[in-house]
Amino acid sequence: MIIALFPNLQKPQSYDLAMQARDFFRSKGVLVTTADQHAELFDVTPISAIAQSDITLAISLGGDGSILNFVHAYPEIEAPVMGINLGSLGFLADVPTFNLTKALEEILAGSYSVQERLVIESHTNDTYYFAINEVVIHRGENYTLVDLAIFVDGKYLNTFSADGIIISTPSGSTAYSLSAGGPILTPQLEAVVITPICPHTITNRPIVLQHTHTISIRYLNNYLPVSVAFDGIQNFPLQPQESISIGPAKKRFRLATLSSVDYFETLRTKLGWSGTLKN
């Protein structure tokens, strides 16, 4: 077994928890690796010295953003990733820090499942982009709303006059899309959500589509470029009258979750739902 640890050292507790995890796995005879720039700090094997196909599990210590940064930094790693939550919400990183020892024991016992989650992608300007959570087309430096025409498999859907558009996966439905009024999709759904950001017309509402569609967005105004962001990590400007097409990726995001973690309990807890089960 090979465990790759990826702590977000900007987070409080991250270093200490990573050392705790390192010591636990070492005591069980498990090989531990981490990013090359942190290998000396943690006294472990640098990841460049490991055959990445041999990695059993990657553990991110941070928040959801830490997981996204890890996957974008190491897209070739196919091992599932588990998140120890040092952030605020944590829908991807759903293992609380107070459960760390128990979580490490469950990992060693193989008491976790792996979800194969939808990834969306685009090939633009001869560059490959992908998103686990969402693609955001935002007005950027423009001081006014922008007009974005949406096509689904080449068929015209609508033109949104808005601050922008979010194309979200089920994983991202509890992120920016939710803040913009989009619905929550359970992770197992094979669907995407188109959510307008602050649309000028209140009848413009989010729409859920089957994941197999190709969604094209054309920027109609002759203003400054708008910003296109994939998970807030890969970014580029979209010029006036240009288009971008987004569709399902062949690759999947492999998220490891402990058997003791309940997705609906996570929703209730993280979103502060106040309902109670009455007899």
Strand ordering within the main sheet: 3-2-1-4-5-6
Give a short account of the largest sheet. Answer: 6 strands, parallel
Tell me how many strands there are: 20
Q: What is the approximate shape?
A: globular
Helix content, binned percent: 10-25%
Radius of gyration: 20 Å
Q: Structural class, from secondary structure content?
A: alpha+beta
Would you give the CATH topology of the largest domain? Rossmann fold
CATH architectural label of the largest domain: 3-Layer(aba) Sandwich
CATH hierarchy, class of the largest domain: Alpha Beta
Distance N terminus to C terminus? 46 Å
- What string gives the helices and strands in order? EHEHEEHEEHEEEEEEEHEEEEEEEH
Mean pLDDT across all residues, rounded? 93
Low-confidence residue ranges: none
Strand percent estimate:
35-45%
